[in-house]
Amino acid sequence: MYNAMKRYTVSEARMKIAEVLDEAERGEEVLIERRGIRFRILASERPRAKRPLVKIRILDPAIEAGDWTWKWGPGGFTFVPGDGSNTTRASRPGKSSKSGKSRKPR
Fold first, then answer.
1. What SS3 class is residue 64?
2. 42 phi and psi angles, rounded to 5 deg
3. Where are the alpha helices (DSSP H) in the chain?
4. In sequence order, what E strands does 1-106 have?
C-alpha cells in the first residue's frame, strides 16, 4: 500500500492544525513548508515521568508530632524540639487577661 506524504504550507497547517496532528498521530508522514524549508512532523509518545525523589528521608519525631519551635540565638534561628506537650500559641500557660482574672466561658 502506498502511503502518500501530506504537505502543507504554514498558513494551511495553521488553519488545519488538528488535522495535521491527527495525521501525524496515525503515523502518516506530514511536511510543513516555509520559505523553502521543510519541517517533518513526527508523533511520539512522551516517556512516563519518573517518580519524584523523596525530599526528606529522615523526619525528626518532634516535627512529625508538630512539637517544635525556632529559637533565636547568636547564629540566627535554630530548630528546637519541643518539650512533648504539643501546645499551641493560643493556649500558652502562664498568660492571663489584663485584669488577672480568668475568663468564664459564655
1. helix
2. -125, 130
3. 10-15, 17-25, 61-65
4. 6-9, 30-34, 37-41, 68-73, 76-81
Distance between CA atoms of 14 and 20, rounded to whole angstroms? Answer: 9
State pLDDT tens for residues 11-47: 999 999 999 999 999 988 999 999 999 999 888 887 7
Contact 102, 82 (CB under 8 A): no
CA distance 86 to 69: 10
Grouping H, G, I as helix, E, B as strand and the rest as coil, residue 89 is helix
Nearest Cα residue to 8 out of 39, 40, 37, 33 = 33
Bridge partners of 99, per DSSP, are none
- 59 band by pLDDT with thresholds 50, 70 and 90: low
- pTM for this model (two decimals): 0.41
Cell numbers at 65, concatenated: 508530632
C-alpha to C-alpha distance for 9 and 37, rounded to whole angstroms: 10
